[in-house]
Recover the amino acids of this structure.
C-alpha cells in the first residue's frame, strides 16, 4: 500500500485545493495537495517537501486530521491528512492544472479523487455541526 500525504492548508478561512493534470492518474480530479512518502521521511517532512515542490511555498504542518484508504485499479493508497498553515512565499503551481482557495461549504462543487471523498464529507459534517 502506498502512503500519500495531503494537506488541509488553511488561509483566510479557506482551504487550498488543486486540480490534477489531465495526463496523470486521476487526471482532472481535484485533491488536497501532497504526494507519496519517500523512504526515511516522516509524513510532516513529506508534506513540507511536496508543497514546496508543487506550489513553491513554505508551510507549517500542524495537527493530524484523518486518513482514508482507497483501492484504485493502479494500486491501493493510504491518504494521510494534516492541517497546515502558510508560512511564506507566493504560490506558483508547478504541477497542477489549476488551484483554488475554497470554503468547506464550497468543496462539494468540485470533483474530488475518490480517496478524498470521506475526508471532504467529514469536513462538511463537522462544519455543519459547528454552525448548527
Ligand atoms: N497528493 C494527493 N494525492 C492523492 C489525493 N487523493 C488521491 O487519491 N491521491 C492519489 C493520487 C496518486 O495516485 C497518489 C499520489 O499522489 P501524487 O501524484 O501527488 O504523488 P507525488 O506528488 O509524489 O507525485 P509523483 O511522485 O507521482 O510524481 O495519491 C490527494 O488528495 N492528494
Ligand atoms: Mg503530488
Amino acid at each position: 500500500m502506498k502512503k500519500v500525504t495531503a494537506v488541509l492548508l488553511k488561509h483566510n478561512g479557506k482551504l487550498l485545493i488543486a486540480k490534477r493534470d489531465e495526463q496523470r492518474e486521476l487526471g482532472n480530479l481535484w485533491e488536497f495537495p501532497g504526494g507519496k512518502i519517500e523512504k526515511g521521511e516522516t509524513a510532516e517532512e513529506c508534506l513540507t517537501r511536496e508543497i514546496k515542490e508543487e506550489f513553491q511555498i513554505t508551510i507549517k504542518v500542524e495537527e493530524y486530521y484523518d486518513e482514508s484508504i482507497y483501492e484504485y485499479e493502479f494500486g491501493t493508497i493510504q491518504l494521510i491528512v494534516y492541517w497546515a498553515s502558510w508560512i511564506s512565499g507566493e504560490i506558483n503551481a508547478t504541477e497542477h492544472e489549476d488551484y483554488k482557495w475554497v470554503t468547506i461549504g464550497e468543496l462539494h462543487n468540485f470533483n474530488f479523487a475518490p480517496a478524498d471523498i470521506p475526508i471532504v464529507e467529514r469536513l462538511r459534517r463537522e462544519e455543519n455541526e459547528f454552525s448548527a
